[in-house]
Design brief:
Blueprint: H1 2-23, E1 28-29, E2 34-35, E3 39-41, E4 58-59, H2 69-85, H3 91-115, E5 128-129, H4 133-158, E6 168-170, E7 177-179, H5 182-192
Antiparallel strand pairs: 1-5, 2-3, 3-4, 6-7
Length: about 190
C-alpha cells in the first residue's frame, strides 16, 4: 500500500520525465547518468518500482528515435485546434499564432520539466530529472514547429481570408480545384505588363 501511494505521488513527475524523453534530451537518474532517445547510461539505480521500466544501458534501439515525432504531432494538433477556435486573416498571422502558441507551450513544458526533478538523497542521488535548458529548448522547437505547421495547414484548408485575397484549394469537392480571387489575378497581370 505504501509503494502504491508513493508511486501515485510520483506519477506527475514521471510524466514530465517522459516528456523530456520524448523531446530528446531525456533525464538523469543520478549524477552522470542519462536516459534519452539516443543513449542510456544508468549505472546502479534505487529499488523503486517505476525505475524498473527504464531501458538498459547502451545505445537506444532505432525505433526510439521515432518517438521524437510525438511532440511535433501534438504541436500540429494544438495548432490546428487553436486556428479552428481563433481563425486567422492570413498565412502570416496563422504561422505567427502557431509559432507563438507552440513556443509558449514548449516554454511552459520546459519549466514544468525542470521543476519535476531534484535531489532524492545524498551523493549521486542529488541529480534526478530533466535539466532546464536542453529540454526546454527542444520542447520549444518541437511544439513550435508542429503548431506552426498545424496552423498554416488548417488556414489553407479553411479557405480564403475574409478580404478574399488569398488563393485557396477547395478540398470539399471530389477533386481539388484551385480558386484564385479576381483581385489577385488582376494584380498578377498588371505586374507582368
Amino acid at each position: 500500500a505504501f509503494y502504491t501511494v508513493l508511486v501515485a505521488g510520483f506519477a506527475p513527475n514521471a510524466a514530465l520525465f517522459g516528456s523530456s524523453y520524448l523531446v530528446g534530451p531525456g533525464f538523469a537518474v543520478g549524477t552522470g547518468t542519462v536516459v534519452s532517445t539516443g543513449d542510456v547510461s544508468l549505472g546502479p539505480v534505487p529499488a523503486f518500482p517505476l525505475l524498473a521500466a527504464l531501458p538498459g544501458d547502451g545505445p537506444a534501439p532505432w525505433w526510439a528515435m521515432l518517438l521524437l515525432v510525438v511532440p511535433v504531432i501534438l504541436g500540429v494538433v494544438a495548432g490546428r485546434q487553436a486556428l479552428l477556435t481563433f481563425p486567422a486573416s492570413g498565412y502570416e498571422i496563422a504561422a505567427l499564432r502557431g509559432l507563438g502558441g507552440g513556443a509558449a507551450g514548449g516554454l511552459l513544458l520546459g519549466l514544468a520539466m525542470a521543476l519535476s526533478g531534484g535531489a532524492v538523497g545524498p551523493g549521486r542521488m542529488t541529480d534526478i530529472g530533466p535539466g532546464l535548458l536542453a529540454p526546454t529548448f527542444a520542447a520549444i522547437v518541437a511544439l513550435g514547429l508542429g503548431a506552426t505547421l498545424g496552423a498554416v495547414v488548417t488556414h489553407w484548408r479553411q479557405g480564403p481570408a475574409p478580404d478574399g485575397t488569398e488563393p485557396t484549394v477547395d478540398l470539399s469537392a471530389g477533386e481539388p480545384t484551385v480558386q484564385i480571387q479576381r483581385s489577385l489575378l488582376d494584380r498578377f497581370r498588371r505586374s507582368g505588363d
